[in-house]
């Protein structure tokens, strides 16, 4: 079991612009799959599984890529032409597809939006995938952006909290590894990712 | 343990109106619903056409209406222990409203929470009084199909007895602008899947919900099964961020999974994704050829997006309802607007007119950005 927490920025991913959402997701998953900076993991030069069809990838976020959505909407309201790259990256599928391409993953990909217990839903989804398909590897990734005025307004209405800084947390679970329980939520600085950050920190033997 | 999954109720709304008869008169008659959009100024956009159902209503109202109809048909009791799984990207009209108000210094409008996909699932569960897990699926054009796959997993594994799966998309400015910027929209006001002259998609209003439940649950309640969902699959192309694999590899893989789970039965009809884009249709054709092999030309395939438009997050669940009607009525919906065949698309696409055919099993396939693919196998009850 390998976990990664990326909360201090991520290198750009070609083709993805203006928003940190996709680079954060990519970096967290990449760190897990290659074992880089993951003290408990087995480093893998490419991170590619033996059988990509037996790897599942699940992304969860409450708000999704709010920065891309909001930028597109602001341009629309201002009467400006939409950047085709924003169209391309406007759904989480785009970065999931990029991760699948780079790591040769051809199993199921899911993108979910959760209010509340994001870690619990991700881990429950992992259990469900195990019960249904028993994949060799399940990669879970949670991403949340610090957000725009619109995201802040939505958080106020929903009674949820944005993270103090944009962050992504990924966990890779291999077949036979016990799915960890959801611990009490970690620091509120991670917003909806706080439960997941706590799980990841325990896997890494550190505090989030 | 793997439990049988039955479909016991549905509700649906498209540009043709609400309910099965509206679909029969529009989709099954091969009558495209495209007309000028009147709910906002389309001047700045590449097209002013879409398949809309009059004035827009809030997305959650569409979800609630179709889910209430599905529950009524299934005879579910109030406050059922049901999961609520919704394919949605949130309410885009609320997103535009927020930024317009900001630009005009009008303060923050209410309803901004509706832009959050998870809110839509929570609100629907609250409206229905459903007490099970609730989740929103945001995988674009496979969102509601993925919700259905998830529901099948939940029911088959014994985690829940009943799931209400829904999806909704209503035509609005944000996606009209985005799809325009991506040069994905039709240039001739028609959606012509699998034709040589196809030039892209048009958007459409769509909302639907289905009630899925275990056979034990349906039996206990005395509910009538409309069909059985015997197979499901999901797979990724791992090919390109926006383009499908040219051989339809992920689509074929998802479909193979679904068929394997269903016991490798003979499929009598495929409701295709068929977006009428240059890249999708030949890729999907090759995927279906790889799936069916020598039988490929004998399996009727149609794309009902030629009449309803592309329903984005709602496509999977609306097209499952259309597939259900095809099974139950013994009529295959045509691919409307079909003109000159494309040599790269060489299957039987049920051109322009409905086809009467007694079918036992059908498959609905969907694909999305990032190479995500789903397949569902439906069998007559």
What report would you give on this structure?
The complex is a heterodimer of chains A (208) and B (381). In chain A, α1 (21-34) packs parallel to α4 (92-103). Chain A has 208 residues and is of the alpha/beta class. A five-stranded mixed beta sheet of chain A has the order 1-5-4-2-3, sandwiched between helices. Chain A has helices at residues 21-34, 66-77, 84-89, 92-103, 118-132, 149-158, 194-204; strands at residues 2-6, 55-60, 109-113, 137-144, 167-174. Chain B has 381 residues and is α/β, with parallel strands linked by helices. Helices cover 32% and strands 21% of the residues of chain B. Chain B is built from eleven helices and 15 strands. In chain B, β1 and β2 form a beta hairpin. In chain B, α2 packs across α4, α5 (143-156) crosses α11 and α8 runs parallel beside α9. In chain B, 67% of the residues are buried. Chains A and B meet through α2, α3, α4, β3 and α5 of A and α3, α4, β6, α5 and α6 of B. β3 of chain A pairs antiparallel with β6 of chain B.
Indicate the topology.
The complex is a heterodimer of chains A (about 210) and B (about 375).
Chain A: E1 2-6, H1 21-34, E2 55-60, H2 66-77, H3 84-89, H4 92-103, E3 109-113, H5 118-132, E4 137-144, H6 149-158, E5 167-174, H7 194-204
Helix pairs in contact in A: 1-4
Chain B: E1 5-14, E2 17-18, H1 20-26, E3 35-36, E4 49-50, H2 59-74, E5 82-87, H3 92-103, H4 117-128, E6 134-137, H5 143-156, E7 162-169, H6 173-181, E8 206-214, H7 215-221, E9 227-236, H8 249-261, E10 269-271, H9 280-292, E11 301-302, H10 305-308, H11 315-329, E12 331-332, E13 355-356, E14 361-368, E15 372-380
Helix pairs in contact in B: 2-4, 5-11, 8-9
